[in-house]
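Obj.: predict assembly geometry.
Materials: sequence records (below).
Method: joint structure prediction, all chains together.
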Amino acid sequence: MKKKLFAAALVLCSMVVLAQKSAMKFGKIDPEYFSMKSYPADSSAGALILGDIGDISITWNDARGWCMEFHRHFRVKVFNSHGFDLANFKITTMDLGPTYKEQITKLKASSYMMEGSKMVETSLTKDNVFIDEISSKEKSNNFSVPNLKEGCVFEVEYHIISDFYWILPDWEFQYTEPALFSELTVTTPEYFFFKTLMKGYISPTSTESKTYNRSIIFRYNDGTSNSVVYADNSKKFRFNDVPAFREEPFMTSVNNYLAAIEFELGSENFPLKKRDYTMSWEKISKELLEDTDFGVQLKRSCPLKDEAAALKISKPDPKERMIAAFELIRNSMSYNDKYGKYVTKNLRSAWDEKKGKSSDINLLLVSLLNEAGIEADPVILSTRENGALHPGQIILGKFNYVIAEARIGEERFLLDATDKKLPYTMLPERCLNGKGRRISQTPSLNDWVNLMGGVSNERQLYAVTSLHANGNVSGEFSLMETAYYAHKRAEQIRAENTTDDYITKYESDYSGLYIDEMTIENTDDRLQPLYLKYKGTYNLSDESIKDIIYMNPTLGAGLSSNPFTAESREYPVDFKNPFSQKIINTITLPEGYDIAELPKSAMISLPDQLGNFRYSIAVNGSMIQFMSVLALRTAVITSENYPYLKELYSHIVAKNSELIVLKKR
Amino acid sequence: MNRKEILFFAAICLSCLLSAQLYPQNLAVSSIPENISKGANSVIRNYHKTISFPDDDKMTENVSLSLTILNEKSLEEAHLIIPFNKGEKVTVKKAEIYNAAGVRTKSIKDSDMIERSAVNNASLYNDNRVIYCRIIPISYPFTIVYEYEISYNRLYTFEFFSPYISDLQGVERSALTLDNSSGIPVKVSKLNLPEDAPVTIRGTSVTWDFSNLEPLVSEPYEPHFEDYVPTIIISPEVIQYNKYKGKCDTWANFGSWISQLSAGRTSLNSTTVARLQEMTSGASSDREKASILYKYLQSRTHYINISLGIGGLQPHHATEVDELGYGDCKDLSNYMVAMLKAVGIESYYTLVKAGYGRYNFQPDQPGHQFNHAIVCIPQPHDTIWLECTSQTIPFGYLGDFTDNRPVLLIKNNTGILAHTPEYRMNENHSSSLIRIDYSDEGTAAACSFRYSGLLMDEPVTVASQNNADQLLWLNCELEINDFTVIDHKFEVSENTTHSVSLKANLALHSFFTGKNERLFASLNLNNQIGAPKRMRTRLRPLYLPVPYSGCDTLLINLPAGFIPEQLPESQLSSAQFGNYTMQTSLIDHTIQCIRRFEFFGGTFPATDYAAFYDFMQKVSVADAKQLVLIRQ
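Observations (raw structure tokens):
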């Protein structure tokens, strides 16, 4: 026991030692890393990031003016071949002409291996860096660190100078492999104020602020010069012992979970020139409302004046008018699959060409609604792929999409006319991401708008079945689905070539099911529930008459395996929408059999009324009445509630495998 | 072809020519015959590809296409996408959009087309480029008309032409013209062409015409499309690529050209040679030496693709790979050959057309039919084959990416066709033993699994993954609700029969379901078979490429006070498709369930699909049988 303790203490000590090292000098590798066989905190990791040091600064350059400089030094210990992936780099740079470009001014990469007591270094040579001309404006410098071996250490160091001083690169503190530390220092002159956005589920180990005095000397042609003194504000963010990032089921985009930092220029504060970019929501609204490509478009005369006038006459009821306006835009406009919050050219040309981005289409809708006498405003949001918004972080750049909100009396409608298959009641799933921000001329309306939970997904299988003496089950079935469940199924139906092909596909989801005939109702109308009505037989057995019959009343329509297998969860579970799934089965029993056993009715709930599962079964003469309902009242389950969710699902799977037992009389 | 026929074809050709000049094609959607558009998402109105060999070192490809997009499902086919390589010249002559009435609504300007790099994530760098323009339709249906030309300053190609571009697509007319004005020898193969397919010969050109073809529907378990779709394959029998000249009239000559590319690139510096010799000095056989070198290769190289121009075919110098530690399949295979040479073992750089499932290979048409390179080490018994791009697979294992297919060995500056080994039913084997130790205090499961042949493809990959991924895989493999893995261990066996074994100990949070008089449990916890789709009509043969077999044993101790209500068993056998047995018995308070399955695989006529479904459906019913225990 003593020996074991000692070993543990040793590991601890060495970790402390590892964690303390910060400064890295290119080519100086601590020999102890070569003998390291694995990382105790994550023994199956393919590599360990020994350090990743980033340095962003805005500097004055006599020739170029203000520049952004980015320096990175990345060092990795490789344990096995899975760690090799970290050694492939594609560094992209922009080039918009001589005054606006990014340049790589330094690029070094080496791998190291011990041979005997000697460290052997292999350096990247210039001819192994490949320049890929992605487009006329964008280049990519591609390389892979040479001579990697299992057990080696490698490092990469590069420096970029950019004329785009107002754009600071994002920095990720978390990787696919664990890291001893990741550190970023951002130094900006007092003239520039950047908003910072910290993301992820882990916090920095330390942050540190410092101020330095700097001076610029301007030399003029007449030989005179003057100097300007300013302060550089520096902030250092450091994360120690960062766990590897691994994806879990039911996540939105990886962007939402990875520990990272992003920047947006908030203001420029020169003595003679001050400019505020985005400092408050009021300013964001004002700026957008005054932007030629946003608010100004709504102030101009509506390109659909005649249509609006006609709607006013044909649809006196405001809600009907709103729906008609929505359908007019949705049916006329083709969506080019591009996101954005600004118009491509202007609303008139979008209407003339009948196509555009989400912003073209939905700002056009706002314009039409207003023209038709319905109060409406744009709502800007961040799509699911783009990542979550944090209400405390006032950064316009985080919004990448715009929808419309219409208000009729007390009622509010969020509208997105980009998807021809969706009605006014449903937003595309890409928009279901927390909250959006309403941009309105009326100051009191400049507020958050909840995008989620407006619609609940319902699925209900209603079955009237007969159990036969050979164990097979036949009957009539009606599957009803609403909202996104129906939307998804409609997509699957449309994807098949014929109804027969769809029936074949549907059958294959249910073991033993033979469908004789099926009718599909409301494939294209999402204001109505979608129905599949079919007659069929479950061939669950051979043809012989049984003395004992076992039957599962769920008919395989319930959950049969638990998607939540991990013991614990780092990040919330995101279902996108609340939902309910119901199975109702009225079973007529075969003649001459007695019920030997029935599953027990049960009810299991999540804490705080977040959801529950009900399983009920009862005998009614020669029939068994079965019902199960799984209902989740919230779209997102936090990681604290994950164990309850996992347990709930586990109970459901267990209940769904219980059988009714009949015995021949 | 006799003189009369030629005259006849010339007459047809002339009439075609005339009609083409006098009546521009009617692109109205209403003029599409119903049998062609029924069940189609798009219709080829006219597709004409011309391959020209104007000189013995040049090739041009002319494409003219008018395609009607009937609905949004085929929108992807509408976009103008022309992939090419740096150094090739692309001229877009026409890009237009017509509405349903056949009226031109838009002409796409050069400025609307974007040229950019097409280097994807699989490659670090290559010279792939693409010209593209995305089409955003205002309404359906509509028709796109494209005409473009690509010129190549080389002669090296293996062209497949089919009248279809995709499935669920009708064809009004498709044609291929081969214009061989240079008179170089060209080999042409025709697959699945109807007897009466019209052929037109005019001067140095020959045109194959296809018209009025109904859409193809894809079906599960179908053969490769080149086994039933009309296909014409064209390959010049001379090669001219940069400074490399050669012939591909025979496999020997093609091999000799390939060997030119790696000439002088298969040597290593003396330090490396000495190191390799030292590493293998203790080994007693060539097999053992090769195995040591293969492990060395796996531990110190990885796959990175960098190919420029002929670099798509030519391996980098072995010394370069030795220094950099990376390369693509060609580089790494050539490097492996060089390492083997350094220790005195003869081996061959080997070309193969890799991919899962069936593919077409033309043994009578030597040429560029390959997309991958491996290494072959001849042995008195059991030739050794090495896949050099994987860091994880065992020595000598190929897997379903390269198994059972013709390959070209490059031996002594010539080429020889050979065949990679086939994995048979008994080699593609999985077995399991799961012992459930039930107790009210907590149930444990001791599991062991063994996979071999093609069935180890996936486990061998998982065996090298990190713990979290391994647990995720185990959770998917086991059909047990709610368990915790206490410990687990993968082992990859490198003996002559490769296999992966996995041992795992689990704590089950619940095992039996039902809390009353009876307890229920599944009798197959790891590989329940589901039935294939029940098809209402079947057009094409049934193709089941991988035969396999399995034996699974499940042991469950009886909870106190319970006995089995029944002991389920099944026996199913089909002379065509396979055998299934499942037998449950009670031995000393332990339920023992033994399940054996043999799946023969093979190719069967379309009419046999129903019997296949029936057999597999019965197997799936048997596999879903439950163990039911009743209180005594």
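Conclusions so far: Residues 3-22 of chain B form the longest helix (20 residues).
To do: check interface contacts against the pulldown list.
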